Amino acid sequence: MANRISELFRIKYPIIQAGMIWNSGWRLASAASNADILGLIGAGSMYPEVLREHIQKCKKATSKPFGVNVPMLYPNIEDIMNIIVEEGVKIVFTSAGNPKTWTSWLQDRGVTVIHVVSSVKFALKAQEAGVDAIVAEGFEAGGHNGRDETTTLALIPMVKEKIKIPLIAAGGIATGRAMLATMILGADAVQIGSRFVASKESSAHANFKQVVVDAKEGDTQLTLKELAPVRLIKNTFFNQVQDLYKTAPSIDVLKDLLGRGRAKKGMFEGDLEEGELEIGQVAGLINEIKPVGQIVSDIINEFEEAKLSISSL
Q1: How many C-beta neighbours within 10 Å does residue 107 have?
Q2: Which residue, 15, 68, 108, 224, has fewest beta-carbon neighbours within 10 Å?
Q3: CATH for 67
Q4: Rg (CA), the chain
């Protein structure tokens, strides 16, 4: 499946395993890379030295390319970037910040830079900043999301129309059919998160994985737009947020309820009531926890079958 993205990352299949906080440690990233896609370590939930440990373990577990996802709003960003360069990581996905801040600095040190956006406006800003590729993520995605609520189906062709650099589609993609659909719309590759949460190698707690498998249509919703929009599975914490909205709360009151460590409590420690459970709408299509290699094989087989079926339309 040679195209601009598979050549850019030196991978067989144009699929990226998303770097998700509390889910994407070295085991998931190395398993994804060993399955001939691009694995990403999620730096957002790691202190700098913990990230260094995951990078070193990933290098031992795979000889194939892998990268690191870095949300730029997190503290210790300078330490994180220095560790990435020191450890020889050659691919970085940045998000939640201005791409101009780190793109040139990383590229000058031999790193390929991809930036995650949720709108045409920010896609153009990322291209102007000189990034090597863009991830355009639709409203369906889990975790932190765009305020505009533009769906992947609408976002991908709109971004494709405006940019010249390679485009990666994200949000609501967990199957080969969805991969083919977004590539027909103009994407060069797909980034998949939720499907890999429910994998054997994900660092998510077993309780969280099971909730993802059990989730049905309508079980997730975007909330906390005043802070940073995030798609969550509805649970006790989510209901507390919704009840608080009935009182027209200030941002400070919302921050007090959110507190610290909600995402870790839910996804990594398995507290299904008081934790933040970040997952995409596509969880309704995820029915089984599988090894990463099997997930990738299923996606590619379905992709090829879907390509053949198009001729009959």
Answers
A1: 15
A2: 108
A3: 3.20.20.70
A4: 18
